[in-house]
Amino acid sequence: MTKLVTASQFADPDAAYVALVEARRSLDEQAAAALDARLVLILANHIGDIDVLREAIALAKGA
Amino acid sequence: MTTSADRKTVYRYDYRRSADQDARAIVRRPVVVVGAGPVGLAAAIDLALRGVPVVLIDDADRIGEGSRGICWAKRTLEICDRLGVGESLVAQGVTWKLGKLYHGDDLVFSFDLLPEDGHKMPAFINLQQYYLEKALVGRAGEIDDIDLRWKNRLVGLEQHNDHVQLTIDTPDGPYRLAADWLIAADGARSSTRDLLGLSFSGVTFEDKFLIADIRMAADLPTERRFWFDPPFHSGQSALMHRQPDNVWRIDLQLGPDADVAEEQKPERVTARLERMLGDRPFDLEWISVYRFNCRRLDRFIHGRVIFVGDAAHQVSPFGARGANSGIQDAENLAWKLGAVIKGEAGEALIGSYETERIQAADENITHSTRSTDFIAPHTDAERALRNAVLALAPKAEFARRMINSGRLSVATFYGSPLSTPDESPFAGSARLGAPLPDCPIRNPDGSAGYLLENLGDGFTLLTFRNGASPPSAPEGVSRLSVGIDIDDADGTLARRLDATPGAVYLLRPDHHLCGRWRKFDRAKVSAARDRALGKL
User: Which domain holds residue A28?
Assistant: First the structure.
């Protein structure tokens, strides 16, 4: 059974996207990749569910 | 920035010498509007229909040159309907509601605007701007209070306490004219703005875009098509949208390094379009290369000079927020300026034009900036994030919701000092400070009609019956009684307004809702009208 939520959850998805874009606005690709890695760890821990994390990894790899 | 506009003239009008040019003393007019584009024309017609004489000047003698909008939103069409041209525009335009988004070869998302039933005007039509301008010029010609002067170029502007003095150049040489109020509707390269030495705050995007209108007999569906990284235009974006007369609008992103002069050469444009359109024959109608701006003046009112439309604010075209918001500026200003000139309101009311329309401009700039950032990422790191959204979109709904090829223009709601706060909660789709939603109604003779076409040009009190005879509206407010003047045939009106028996709704002259109550109280309605006229 799938536990990962892929339905949109943000009230304003554009604002969420803008927040992510602005975080990397002045970064080169390497610095942005490092930022992303830290973000992944922070958000994965926030989710705190290994099944959800594995499903998310599968979705990201398959995209 | 338009770098070239190789546009055929569509309609031409004659310069005529005005008696003001021969007057011994400088003639003073209540209102001069500079710029006979969609916004200036709408402002002039709206004011004249309110009994204010208007001189409308334009430096050209033709329409059909230069850049132009093609997408007209429902709110704009409702305004045009009140001005007398809405039905003909809809009849002439292409009504559309479907859109498709592609990434490479793949369809990642399709949308249906799903317009709510029971509105007289569609969600959107596509129509060449010169047709809209021609309709408005024709309408202006029917109104005695409009004096439209072609080939009159504003070259001088002096500000005084209670008027401005203008120097206007014509084929017969310059003349002077004074105006109590000047409306600057002279577009993105506003001369009025230059004469006052005003500048914009905002951003100019690095990417250049080719905009082409082509004539092509193509059996393609009527839908907005947008591509990210299409096979025919690698690494960039493309947009295609239908107009009447077999004309198609095509936007191609060219990137920041494109050579503007080179990209406008017809052979180069043709080669790009052939990659897109295959072997379908087409003719080029119009070509332009742009960089987009998202910016506005800090203030729209400078003494007796009031800026509207592109002269006041600019956005990218994704979302159809430019000309639409300009016409909404014109409507917001016209009733207020009319009320001030006729002595029904103090000058404070004009200030609310700026309060409300800066809210609208900022909303439009925010949406337009977000869309442009998504379509043209600034850096490789931003592009990687954008491409991740596109890659996830086929599998994850949250990603589809983040794809942004333009968030389409909808009517602005004003968090406004002119609105009287609700005393009790109201559900339904009508919102305080927003335009009243349209609704199907039945006329007393049994014919079908719509709510908005029954509202007048002034304040209206919409009342729902509660068994007693309807209340008499306070002075300066006309009454429209549901159950007497119009019938809520299937209950839609009561549902959209969350109306209970005896409820009353006060509408501004621009049909924005500015007060509502579960039961009529003359003093409250009267105070709400005063408040909406800026008499706080």
Answer: 13-62
